[in-house]
Design a protein that fits this description.
With 494 residues, the protein is α/β, with parallel strands linked by helices. The protein folds into 3 domains: 8-194, 3-Layer(aba) Sandwich (Rossmann fold); 207-355 and 421-493, NAD(P)-binding Rossmann-like Domain (Rossmann fold, 3-Layer(aba) Sandwich); 362-413, no CATH class. The chain contains 14 helices and 16 strands. It has helices at 33-36, 39-53, 86-97, 152-170, 219-229, 268-275, 290-296, 312-320, 362-370, 374-383, 388-396, 407-413, 424-442, 485-493; strands at residues 25-31, 59-65, 109-115, 125-132, 135-139, 183-187, 192-194, 207-208, 212-215, 234-241, 281-286, 304-307, 325-332, 335-342, 456-460, 471-472. The strands form 2 sheets. Strands 8, 9, 10, 11, 12, 13, 14, 15 and 16 form a 9-stranded mixed beta sheet that branches. The protein has a 7-stranded mixed beta sheet with strand order 2-1-3-4-5-6-7. β9 (212-215), α5 and β10 form a beta-alpha-beta unit. α2 runs parallel beside α4 and α4 (152-170) runs antiparallel to α13. The chain is globular, with a radius of gyration of 23 Å. The N and C termini lie far apart (53 Å). Pfam families: ThiF. Residues 211-462 form the THIF-type NAD/FAD binding fold domain. InterPro entries: ThiF_NAD_FAD-bd, Ubiquitin-activating_enz. GO terms for molecular function: ubiquitin-like modifier activating enzyme activity. It comes from Deinococcus ruber.
Length: 494
């Protein structure tokens, strides 16, 4: 298999927990006219398709079996046209994300997915997806279809859960680490696994959103924004900050649900500003690292920061700016975490339990490589797309041959490239939980927000219905700066 493509970041087997013995597969996606004609149904069908089509190694083809002549609702996604037959537009969106879809032999496995009630097509594995208000469902049993309004949150929850179950089946999750679910509802309003649909409060016709700063427009940030795009009644102002100089890359597309092949090479923040032009969400883009933005725009300091960054150096920089509130959404492998931080004494901060990594010097990396066998070095070189002979030449005299291996390449050998295993449905779920918490705060629902002893929600996809998928507490680290008199004096002055 080639490297650095759409499926690269999720290809690893996570130390034997996953494998590829059921891939590639064919997916059959179906729904009744009554379901597919609703806005909730289209939000679910689109986001589910969006996530499935990014599973490049796992899924070779997707057959959409929907009744013909269903018009698309406006504002479903910037990746599909705003008018036309919904089924045809799904095909356009799939092609824009993964043009290789359908070109690979997909005879190994068939997965059937039905949105809403009804019969499943014959397949090796079948799943149902459903949504109701703030809650979404996945499982092998039918579930009620009870959309009471056009809230996209439950639909997006269901899409992420269902894409996760399809992935786990196709990658044959090891039973010691995870299991398939028969039926799981998750309520994004109460942030809990529940035994049935939870509608939550009905959304009003107009939602004035809280002004916020979005730090990071990558996997989690793009999912957060995609959900906001699906809320036509929302009006808000956001500052989007992302200083990734490479912009949107092909290997990002397995989890960047707001972007497609047309966006490759574009800066993330500027790209989303253009996407949202004409909507109720006004985005001011800053194609800068957080540190550079703070230094050059000191008057734009924020009340609420939505942290979607992927490393602790960036988290420390955000905390150092002393925002009043921080909502931090993050992922690790098949796990999601959302934590609410408040700038008050005796409250945890974004630095707590997020230590800075120990950065190896170039000399330490070189010495480590020189201590390995030539066979191990050759294997590592191929993994990092380096010619083994060039690596050997460099290691014989690093000073003389310094141009052969750059500092960026050395950091990859040190395990510091930052390109950890990741998959789209996990990032999407994190972005949806962040959007749900943002929406609750915009609606003024203080009782249900994450704070105090219930300031964190953790969710893992290994066993979706597990008791550990619940609201819990992120405590203050007694060794953190926020426990010091210096910090307490600093926040009193803000």
């Amino acid at each position: 298999m080639t490297r650095n493509d759409l499926g690269d970041r999720q290809r690893d087997d996570l130390k034997g927990r996953l494998n590829h013995d059921r891939t590639p597969a064919r997916v059959i996606l179906t729904a009744s006219r009554d379901v597919a004609a609703t806005r909730t149904g289209q939000n679910l069908l689109w986001m589910l398709t969006n996530l499935l089509v990014r599973q490049q190694d796992e899924i070779a083809s997707i057959e959409v079996r929907l009744p013909a002549g269903i018009p698309v609702h406006p504002g479903i996604s910037p990746l599909i046209p705003p008018e036309g037959d919904f089924t045809e537009l799904l095909g356009i969106g799939m092609c824009r994300i993964n043009p290789q879809l359908g070109t690979i032999n997909s005879g190994l496995t068939t997965v059937a997915i039905r949105v809403g009630p009804g019969a499943l097509p014959e397949a090796n594995y079948g799943l149902y997806a459903s949504a109701a208000g703030w809650s979404g469902y996945t499982g092998t049993h039918e579930a009620a279809w009870l959309p009471t309004d056009e809230n996209p949150i439950g639909a997006y929850v269901a899409a992420a859960l269902t894409a996760g179950e399809a992935f786990k089946f196709l990658r044959s999750v090891h039973p010691e680490y995870g299991e398939m679910t028969d039926a799981t509802w998750f309520d994004a309003h109460g942030m809990a696994v529940v035994d049935g649909p939870r509608l939550g409060p009905q959304l009003p016709e107009a939602i004035p959103g809280v002004t916020a700063t979005l730090a990071g427009v990558g996997a989690v940030g793009s999912a957060f924004l995609h959900l906001l795009y699906a809320l036509p009644q929302l009006t808000t102002t956001l500052t989007a900050i992302d200083g990734d100089q490479k912009g949107i890359e092909l290997s990002n597309l397995n989890r960047y649900v707001l972007f497609c092949q047309d966006d490759l090479g574009q800066p993330k923040a500027s790209r989303v500003q253009k996407m949202f032009e004409g909507s109720g969400v006004t985005i001011t883009s800053r194609d800068l690292l957080w540190q550079d933005w703070i230094a050059t725009h000191p008057t734009e300091l924020m009340d609420l920061v939505l942290s979607c960054v992927d490393n602790n150096m960036a988290r420390h920089a955000i905390q150092d700016a002393l925002p009043r509130y921080i909502l931090s959404a993050s992922t690790f492998e098949l796990r999601v975490q959302l934590v609410a931080f408040k700038r008050e004494e005796d409250e945890a901060c974004l630095r707590c339990y997020n230590p800075l990594p120990k950065v190896k010097s170039d000399d330490e990396v070189i010495a480590g490589l020189q201590a390995q066998s030539s066979e191990a070095r050759a294997e590592a070189a191929l993994e990092h797309q380096v010619v083994p002979e060039q690596l050997e030449t460099y290691l014989r005299d690093p000073q003389k041959h310094c141009g052969l291996i750059t500092g960026d390449i050395l950091r990859k050998f040190a395990g510091q490239s930052g390109e950890e295993w990741s998959v789209g449905f996990v990032s999407a779920f994190a972005g949806v939980l962040l959007a749900a918490e943002y929406l609750k705060r915009s609606l003024g629902e203080c009782a249900e927000r994450l704070e105090g002893l219930g300031n964190m929600i953790r969710f893992q996809f290994w066993i979706p219905g597990a008791a550990v998928n619940e609201v819990t507490h992120w405590p203050q680290d007694p060794k953190c700066l926020c426990s010091s008199a210096f910090y307490r004096a600093a926040i009193r002055k803000v």
